[in-house]
């Protein structure tokens, strides 16, 4: 039986690279994005041209009804959900000092990045539990967090808090779902070349040049996709609740 992967925030950037890689790995892929199918038709066609079976759900993970619809429409399309990749996320609209951060910005970022993750995972986990297992498990959930879950950026505190919350969600759901045959992992990207980081390209170019990252280059969406591909494969059947840093070694403490 062909398995199905649902990837949120996957019309472009890291999410698109993950969806493409999982499609090449043999999964049916459900693209979840806030834009219409017509808006993202070129991305869908590129995947289909590579022989990938693609479904599309227009949804906002911050919305309760949309989260339930992601599950129902994915099951209608392909019969089951074997992999959920919680990739959808936003940065603050304005980078503000921690003492100037607004409640509205906090609510927006945490509502999408953390609350959306938590309750979509809850809904998908219920679907996975109801399914027959394939290859000794009922599903795999991968959370895309960030090195910002443990690294301070005082000009975007709400983002750091939201990603730290995802790390705890990984721990909580891995604990709760292991007995159900569902594994949960986390991937922590570092500086990845995407639309989100393009606004601060000069800053990171300089930091790379100055040697902050042991692997002295920008990360790519494909680097993140490779880690997700490995975690959802059959190579990690006795592993849950762990994380992988995809950050060029940025996490290494050095003298």
Number of strands: 7
Write the H/E string, N to C.
EHEHEHEHEHEHHHE
Poorly predicted runs? none
Shape assignment: globular
The class by helix and strand makeup works out as alpha/beta
Distance between the termini: 51 Å
Integer-rounded radius of gyration: 18 Å
Please count the helical segments. Answer: 8
Query: Largest sheet at a glance?
Result: 7 strands, parallel
How big a fraction of the residues is strand?
5-15%
Mean pLDDT: 96
- Oligomer state equals single chain
Fraction in helix: 40-55%
**Biggest β-sheet: strands ordered side by side in the sheet:** 3-2-1-4-5-6-7
Characterize the structure shown.
By secondary structure, the protein is α/β, with parallel strands linked by helices. It is 42% helix and 15% strand. The chain contains eight helices and seven strands. The chain has helices spanning 13-24, 41-49, 64-78, 103-129, 157-177, 195-198, 201-209, 221-231; strands at 4-8, 28-33, 54-58, 83-86, 139-144, 182-189, 243-246. It has a seven-stranded parallel beta sheet with strand order 3-2-1-4-5-6-7, with helices on both faces. Helix 2 links the parallel strand 2 and strand 3 (54-58). Helix 1 (13-24) crosses helix 8, helix 3 (64-78) runs parallel beside helix 4 and helix 4 packs parallel to helix 5. The termini are far apart.
């Amino acid at each position: 039986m062909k398995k199905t992967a649902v990837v949120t925030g996957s019309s472009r950037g890291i999410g698109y690279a993950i969806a493409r890689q999982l499609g090449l790995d043999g999964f049916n892929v459900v693209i979840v994005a806030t834009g219409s199918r017509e808006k993202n038709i070129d991305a869908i066609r590129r995947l289909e041209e590579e022989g990938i079976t693609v479904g599309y759900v227009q949804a906002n993970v911050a919305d309760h009804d949309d989260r339930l619809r992601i599950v129902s429409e994915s099951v209608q399309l392909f019969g089951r959900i074997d992999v959920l990749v919680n990739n959808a996320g936003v940065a603050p609209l304005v980078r503000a000092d921690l003492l100037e951060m607004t409640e509205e910005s906090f609510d927006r970022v945490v509502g999408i990045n953390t609350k959306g993750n938590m309750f979509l995972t809850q809904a998908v986990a219920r679907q996975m539990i109801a399914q027959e297992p394939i290859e000794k498990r009922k599903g795999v959930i991968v959370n895309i967090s960030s090195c910002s879950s443990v690294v301070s950026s005082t000009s975007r505190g709400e983002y750091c808090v939201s990603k730290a919350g995802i790390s705890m969600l990984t721990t909580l759901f891995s604990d709760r779902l292991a007995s159900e045959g569902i594994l949960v992992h986390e991937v922590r990207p570092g500086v990845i070349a995407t639309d989100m980081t393009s606004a601060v390209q000069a800053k990171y170019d300089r930091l790379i040049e100055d040697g902050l990252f042991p692997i002295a280059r920008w990360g790519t969406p494909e680097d993140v996709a490779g880690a997700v591909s490995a975690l959802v494969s059959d190579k990690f059947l006795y592993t849950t609740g762990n994380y992988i840093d995809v950050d060029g070694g940025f996490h290494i403490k050095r003298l």
